[in-house]
Every structure is written in structure tokens, then in C-alpha cells.
């Protein structure tokens, strides 16, 4: 594997290999005094974030450091981007400075793909850490890791993705990955928050959350992305919350053992009730914990070997 | 030459070095040696922790541990230690999948016996020593191998050796264990 840009087209065995590696990394680091592995010593990883982020950037940085890579963080605010440098020139600069891997988050969908095209020749790997409303593959992988931990194999599991699907790169990445892993995916959202062309996705669509809940193995709540909304997508926050928010009463409709996920940052009281976020069914803090192991696994698969496929 | 999983297939034109019966007798003898060297019979010694190195070191450690318990009456904790993340040749080969790491107990101030099937260059054991250091500080680390085939590239030796086999570098030693393979045997053949 050279880049991780999307989960669309990520083969099942490649996805499973990353998830298995993440599981082993988690197990091997459990209860250790020294949470550091020498595996990526001498490799340089640069995170390049053109959008705000707490958990993803920190998670990648910790993942790189626990694998002993040198991690350098670049944010758009403090860099030459503010002086008008293009994405391409910034990327080529970072590659020339010796980056083995560039982890990029960008508000434009497709930015990571363009970057990979520019950097492939020099041998620099690119990881998409979120591009516009397109994809966020490591989030989908960490969600899958968390679900596997709670539910076992995902084959034939029924998983709902609820809320602002239109603006959600997390939803897109999850739809592809979960379908690849054999799960049944239901999108639950108001018609205004579903993208055009959703009919061609490997999913079923519903507008009635209460009707779906009793048959689910997991429910993934999405944040309402007000920063990407220019126009009226629903009448009011209160009305959205009543129709699509996961409150305590709805939590009671889920079967026993069902899991609640949220990619964060969550808006308590909007798409998810505060008590629900802290309920035993909620795996939200585990998602963050698994995020580090999954990103370690991604870096391992991109950077540890000689770049060839295993014979 | 295409890389092949360690010991996964039998080499061509192989010669049997140890039969199934020999393997069982060898493990029993090694168990007695571990008991003697760690003073396990004395009643006061803490039992050693056996850590098998994947893949075939794990069933080997389990069998050795069972024998030690049988002969000494003391339960011996056994586990697995994957060394993939500590190898010095990662960048020379395609990405390897990780194997299982399972420490049955803390290893601080314990006697740890690393168990592997074949001792060759010593690089796997070097990686294992580095891995151990990140898990704790054992009082003593020892090494048990079913076959020592020579050609060390590092100053490493085994404390318990099932069988010393002089080999040439062009040869390949394959350990078969019924837990992973169809039978117990140690074979010597030409590298393909």
C-alpha cells in the first residue's frame, strides 16, 4: 500500500490486515510501561492540517511518535500557506524537506488525491485525514475496529448512520468500508441532508429513526456540520434534535448489546443526548483510543516495509 | 527468490533429522534441563515464564511448559512474544502481518525463557531481547531452541538446545509441529 486516500475500493483483505495489525498493536501495548515501538525509527511524518482538528491531528501525532517516527506538524495558519503558497508547492516543499509520509486534511474534496499525484514520484506516501465532504478513511477504520471489538465480525451486522450524511466525509468512508466488510448499512437522515446520488451507494435509506432502532447492531451518530451549511437544511435545531437526535428514550429502543458511536466532536443535546454519550452502550471514548492504534497500523502498512506487496 | 513464510512448506528433497518420537523426547529432555537450571524443584524458586516466538515457538513453549509442570509439579506460565515490530530487516521486505503477543504475567524480576524452533542468525532473538526490554526488566533471560543450525551473525547463544545441526547456508531447516502442521518432525533440505 502506497497511499491511504479513500475506503472506496480498499480491498477487504487490505482493510482486514490494517484492522488486525491495530488489534495486535493494542494488545502488545496494553499495560506496558514503555508505549514506544522502534519500528519507524528514522522515518519522517508530516501532518498538514488546513482545517481545525483536535482528535485526528493528536491521534496521528501520537501514533507516529509511539512508532518512533519523527512527527512534524504544519498548520495552515502558521505556515507559508498564509502568504499565498499553493497546496502543490507546500507539498513539494515538505517532500523535499524529507517527508516519508504526509498526512493531510483539507477543506477541498479531492485534495489528498491531487497531493498523492504530485508526491508519488518522490516516493512520499499520502494519508487522507479528511478532504472536504469526500472521505476520512482512518475514521472509518477506527470505527470498524471499535465495532469489531464490541460485536465481533461485521458480516451481516446492521449499522445505521444517522444525521448530516450530506456534509459528512465520515459517513462516506464508513459506507464503503462497512459494505466491504459485509455489513448492512442504513442511512437515516432528513431528505435535505442526503447527497444526490445516494441511490447508487450500497445502502438503504430511511427517514424514520424510531422504526430502524430495534433492528440495529450499532448506530453511528453524525455531527450536524453547521460550518458547511449555507442555507436552510432543517427548520430548527430543536426540530432536528426531536426527529433525529439519539435521546435516552431512543437508546431504550436499541437491542441489548447494540453499540453507539460518534466520530466527534459531538454536540451534546443536538444529535446525541448527554446521558446517551456517557451510557455503557456508547463506545465514543474507545473510538478515540482505537484511533491511535488504527493510525499506528496505517503508518506501519505504509512505511515499515520495502513498499512491495507481500509474496 | 520469492520470499516464503518461515517454515510454512517443506523444502524439496528433505532429510528427516528428528522423527515425531525424537521431537517428544527432545522436548522432555529440555524440560528436565530447565527444571535443573532454574532450580524449580527446590520449592523456593519462582517458576520461569516461557515466551514462545511466533509462529512455531508458541506451541513449542506450550509443550515445554506442560512437560515442566508434569515433571516438577509446578505450574509454569507460558505466553507469546511477537518480535516483528523490532526486526532489523523490516525495510528490506514487504510489510509483514503482526503475530500474537500475549504475556501471561508481569516479567519484572522473573526468569524468562524465550522459546523458538530454529536458532540461525540470532537476529530474531536480538529483536526479542529488545521487545522484552519494553515490557519490563526480567531478572534473567534464557533461550531454548529445538534446533541450533549455526551461522550466527550476532553474539547470541542458546541455554537449552534440542539438537545441534551443522548446516550449510544453502540448506533449510524446517520444524513441523502437529499444532500447525500435519505432524511432528524436523527436516533438512535444500533451500528452494
UniProtKB/TrEMBL annotation, chain A:
It comes from the Bacteria. GO terms for biological process: 'de novo' pyrimidine nucleobase biosynthetic process; 'de novo' UMP biosynthetic process; amino acid metabolic process. InterPro entries: Asp/Orn_carbamoyltranf_P-bd, Asp/Orn_carbamoylTrfase, Asp/Orn_carbamoylTrfase_sf, Asp_carbamoyltransf, Asp_carbamoyltransf_Asp/Orn-bd. Residues 156-302 form the Aspartate/ornithine carbamoyltransferase Asp/Orn-binding domain. Signal peptide: none annotated. It is an enzyme of class 2 (transferase). Keywords: Pyrimidine biosynthesis, Transferase. Heterododecamer (2C3:3R2) of six catalytic PyrB chains organized as two trimers (C3), and six regulatory PyrI chains organized as three dimers (R2). It comes from Prauserella flavalba. This is Aspartate carbamoyltransferase. Belongs to the aspartate/ornithine carbamoyltransferase superfamily. ATCase family. Catalyzes the condensation of carbamoyl phosphate and aspartate to form carbamoyl aspartate and inorganic phosphate, the committed step in the de novo pyrimidine nucleotide biosynthesis pathway. Residues 2-149 form the Aspartate/ornithine carbamoyltransferase carbamoyl-P binding domain. One of its GO terms (cellular component) is cytosol. GO terms for molecular function: amino acid binding; aspartate carbamoyltransferase activity. Carbamoyl phosphate binds at residues 55-56, 105, 136, 139, 264-265. Pathway: Pyrimidine metabolism; UMP biosynthesis via de novo pathway; (S)-dihydroorotate from bicarbonate: step 2/3. L-aspartate binds at residues 83, 169, 223. It catalyses: carbamoyl phosphate + L-aspartate = N-carbamoyl-L-aspartate + phosphate + H(+). Its EC number is 2.1.3.2.
TrEMBL record, chain B:
The keyword DNA repair does not apply. It is an enzyme of class 2 (transferase). It catalyses: UMP + diphosphate = 5-phospho-alpha-D-ribose 1-diphosphate + uracil. GO terms for molecular function: uracil phosphoribosyltransferase activity. Its EC number is 2.4.2.9. It comes from the Bacteria. Transmembrane segments: none annotated. Residues 17-163 form the Phosphoribosyltransferase domain. Keywords: Glycosyltransferase, Transcription, Transcription regulation, Transferase. A motif (PRPP-binding) lies at residues 112-124. InterPro entries: PRTase-like, PRTase_dom, PyrR, PyrR_bifunctional. One of its GO terms (biological process) is regulation of DNA-templated transcription. Belongs to the purine/pyrimidine phosphoribosyltransferase family. PyrR subfamily. Also displays a weak uracil phosphoribosyltransferase activity which is not physiologically significant. Regulates the transcription of the pyrimidine nucleotide (pyr) operon in response to exogenous pyrimidines. This is Bifunctional protein PyrR. It comes from Prauserella flavalba.
